Amino acid sequence: MNIVLLGSGKVATHLGRAFKMAGQTIVQVWSRNIEHANELADTVASEAISDIADINRNADLYIIAVKDSAIRDLALTLGLDDKLIVHTSGSTSIQALEGVSSHIGVFYPLQTFSKNRAVDFRQIPIAIEATNPEDLTAIRAIADRLSEKVTELSSAQRKALHVAAVFACNFTNHLMAISQDLLKAENLDFDLIRPLIAETAEKVQLNDPEAVQTGPAVREENEIILSHLEALKERPDLQELYRLLSQSIVNLHKQSRG
Amino acid sequence: MNIVLLGSGKVATHLGRAFKMAGQTIVQVWSRNIEHANELADTVASEAISDIADINRNADLYIIAVKDSAIRDLALTLGLDDKLIVHTSGSTSIQALEGVSSHIGVFYPLQTFSKNRAVDFRQIPIAIEATNPEDLTAIRAIADRLSEKVTELSSAQRKALHVAAVFACNFTNHLMAISQDLLKAENLDFDLIRPLIAETAEKVQLNDPEAVQTGPAVREENEIILSHLEALKERPDLQELYRLLSQSIVNLHKQSRG
Fold first, then answer.
1. Within its chain, how far is the Cα of A20 from the centroid?
2. Which residues of B, range 199-218, sit inside 8 Å of A by Cβ?
């Protein structure tokens, strides 16, 4: 399987490495910035290009892994109207590729990629989509080589998955950053909290998060909540977050109790 | 070491088990509700009482593990003015025990306890505090038997730690519950997100959360943010959270970039 990878960011990098490890050939890496293209091309033993005119027109699959707002324009400049072209975005509909080629699809690996951290791709869910059954079969065959967790999702479902991931991953990471900030202000090390974070993530691997909710809000311990708001008095932004999240916890659990 | 445990909730239960495993003797478990006292007393081979008048007056340590608002009243009814009495609360000052005994302190294990989940107590940070050095030494000796991570913190530091833990643990867990809710609405399984949650927690074990922030907000991808807000249009409460958390991410990272 010969693949052209368009993009050089985190998703492109992790996908490139994963394909390489799965024995596939990345024939080209394109990036607007040739240095970025070179860097990724080096790690996946590929050719680097920065001019779309130089694109290899005989590959089996073209993967567009650029920022969402650039997908359609880039796809239209390819001029590959009978090749299989996929994008890798959670929140962009397959419609962004409409009219680009007669073989289009989506290949969305759901993971929080950091450039310098290896991930076990076999465990990463990949959401796939295509407009015709043959393309879906082809995309599934490719995805199956990388991951044990390949699922067909509609564009609407994929977007819901992305939003859910933003809450469960991006926003939670930010709350941890806030947590570290609060500790720093009292000269406390984030290591004090790290075991707690590990346990929090561990608990929801086998349980529903709602069922293992702990803390002052779910117990409606208003005195503690007020004393925490008081402790945050010099951080009105964090007070607002604290208040809103506590209220959200109370509401969810009231609703569940009926 | 003979210990009387006052309380039968999650903290009392986990502490009781941990002391038992560390070879200490829980001579009594007190709870207002005798059935709760019995349940915990059974698992730690102890006597259950529900009347404070029956309290064993010869123990070495009295641990008050009840809800914050009940600590002081319970402590005052003990009538043990020369015994070592500690509470286990993150957000309650040591002052709550002032005048109760000449030997008072705090013994706060920082963990998210679920009743049915065993935890490795050796890795749980325990924040300790006392008003005089001898009591601090005694409390430290006890804490060292349970955990490798014993730290002396002032009441103000301990409260900051508790607030930080609410952000890093309670609030993050709630965001995971929201995430599951959003998936359910599209008939998607939470298993899709679980590997991502594990990776999110794993990443911050060795990195600062701020340094590994991912997602649309930190990249200031406003089109994606707007499309997510649109996707949440039937959940104004979640829209508000999404907006506020995204703004908070943008602000933090603007600030860091100077």
1. 20
2. 199-205, 207-210, 212-218
E-assigned strands of B77-227? 84-87, 103-109, 126-130, 150-152
pTM of the shown model? 0.90
Amino acid (1-letter code) at residue A101: S
- In chain A, the domains with their CATH numbers are 2-153 (3.40.50.720), 159-257 (1.10.1040.20)
- State yes or no: ipTM above 0.95: no
Q: Which residue of B has its CA nearest to A191?
A: B205
Residues of A in contact with B180 (CB under 8 A): 164, 208-210
Mean pLDDT by 10 residues, chain B (258 residues): 95 94 96 97 95 97 95 97 97 97 97 69 93 97 95 96 97 98 96 93 96 93 94 97 98 83
A115 exposure class (CB count in 10 Å sphere: 0-12, 13-18, 19+): exposed
CB B63, CB B107: distance < 8 Å: yes
Which residues 6+ apart lie within 8 Å of A131 measured at CB? A94, A104, A105
Q: How many CB pairs under 8 A join A and B?
A: 324
